[in-house]
């Protein structure tokens, strides 16, 4: 007999799913599950029948026949580089940058940057990514695109040590970064970071000054580092030190620091990263395409380094699909360490959720847990490649392609549901992409 004095708790949304993979500290997985959401946060997750009896929702979302995961977090990308997808392929890093990408990049207009950022947001939403760490130019544009699409983003104004059309001097970049943080200070979806390009393109004085600025503003500091043996050779020639040693000597390795790639690192350097609390983002697809090498990720994890996962830009990956990079991370990890148990499916999912969230410096992301942001995605189990289900984590990493994502939600708001983009006009975006293609070709180096 029901208690006549019982008053159900109100909530904004009650989600029902076959399975919820929470990615909480215990890595709890609930079957016949429900998630109660209010004010953009998870109120409770657990047995659906129990939550249905406890809560009175304003709306319901039935995801029966689906597995719900936390939204994936892309720990490293350059969103507007979707403009260069397939533009320059099959060549090493420095040739790719110097002969093809940089000559066009330095001519980018705000209009082109906006189109590229919107294409990137649409792709991320479609493939189950709810937040990303970006580094590029005129980052106010990418931040606005993300916020408009309902995504979370940490954006950082990229700069080089030499004058460029974007920044005539380092001081000009510092001013832009201050204004960028001020611009987004009241935006709940967008934050900022300081983003020097790399140790071989930014001198020690500017690296140190940029880190001091990150400390002043209380925001993350991110940089490409140890991406390839060629980069190491340049650093040794310029400074007599390998990239990790160079940054460590300058006092730039800390919990504020996120390093992208870390392919060419030694055991001693891994120990330094662990000791200093420095975080690393692994970019397997990009590293493979540019033939940069394979990062020793399992060694990093074993040493206690926080490791996230990123796609890098769509010009050095051709996809912004975190599911593909999860699979590559796990498979390459086994080959790199000659151990089939290395880089397990759970480790790959951890990197794409909790690990990347730490690399963004954004607490609460990458998990479905009481009090955390209601950022989540659903995979449709009607897809034959997901039949049958023994282990949902294994399916996410090894069986899924990203195209099984049928729902993407940020802060309790559904951005994508069964083919319907609710915050973006993808039909108009197609027309804009065609305009962008013509523009890129007109600016390409002959």
TrEMBL record:
<feature type="domain" description="Amidohydrolase-related">
    <location>
        <begin position="67"/>
        <end position="414"/>
    </location>
</feature>
<protein>
    <recommendedName>
        <fullName>5-methylthioadenosine/S-adenosylhomocysteine deaminase</fullName>
        <ecNumber>3.5.4.28</ecNumber>
        <ecNumber>3.5.4.31</ecNumber>
    </recommendedName>
</protein>
<keyword id="KW-0378">Hydrolase</keyword>
<feature type="binding site">
    <location>
        <position position="224"/>
    </location>
    <ligand>
        <name>Zn(2+)</name>
    </ligand>
</feature>
<dbReference type="InterPro" id="IPR050287">
    <property type="entry name" value="MTA/SAH_deaminase"/>
</dbReference>
<keyword id="KW-0862">Zinc</keyword>
<feature type="binding site">
    <location>
        <position position="312"/>
    </location>
    <ligand>
        <name>Zn(2+)</name>
    </ligand>
</feature>
<feature type="binding site">
    <location>
        <position position="197"/>
    </location>
    <ligand>
        <name>substrate</name>
    </ligand>
</feature>
<keyword id="KW-0479">Metal-binding</keyword>
<feature type="binding site">
    <location>
        <position position="105"/>
    </location>
    <ligand>
        <name>substrate</name>
    </ligand>
</feature>
<dbReference type="InterPro" id="IPR032466">
    <property type="entry name" value="Metal_Hydrolase"/>
</dbReference>
<dbReference type="InterPro" id="IPR011059">
    <property type="entry name" value="Metal-dep_hydrolase_composite"/>
</dbReference>
<dbReference type="InterPro" id="IPR006680">
    <property type="entry name" value="Amidohydro-rel"/>
</dbReference>
<dbReference type="GO" id="GO:0090614">
    <property type="term" value="F:5'-methylthioadenosine deaminase activity"/>
</dbReference>
<dbReference type="GO" id="GO:0050270">
    <property type="term" value="F:S-adenosylhomocysteine deaminase activity"/>
</dbReference>
<feature type="binding site">
    <location>
        <position position="312"/>
    </location>
    <ligand>
        <name>substrate</name>
    </ligand>
</feature>
<feature type="binding site">
    <location>
        <position position="76"/>
    </location>
    <ligand>
        <name>Zn(2+)</name>
    </ligand>
</feature>
<dbReference type="GO" id="GO:0046872">
    <property type="term" value="F:metal ion binding"/>
</dbReference>
<dbReference type="InterPro" id="IPR023512">
    <property type="entry name" value="Deaminase_MtaD/DadD"/>
</dbReference>
<comment type="similarity">
    <text>Belongs to the metallo-dependent hydrolases superfamily. MTA/SAH deaminase family.</text>
</comment>
<dbReference type="Pfam" id="PF01979">
    <property type="entry name" value="Amidohydro_1"/>
</dbReference>
<feature type="binding site">
    <location>
        <position position="227"/>
    </location>
    <ligand>
        <name>substrate</name>
    </ligand>
</feature>
<feature type="binding site">
    <location>
        <position position="78"/>
    </location>
    <ligand>
        <name>Zn(2+)</name>
    </ligand>
</feature>
<comment type="function">
    <text>Catalyzes the deamination of 5-methylthioadenosine and S-adenosyl-L-homocysteine into 5-methylthioinosine and S-inosyl-L-homocysteine, respectively. Is also able to deaminate adenosine.</text>
</comment>
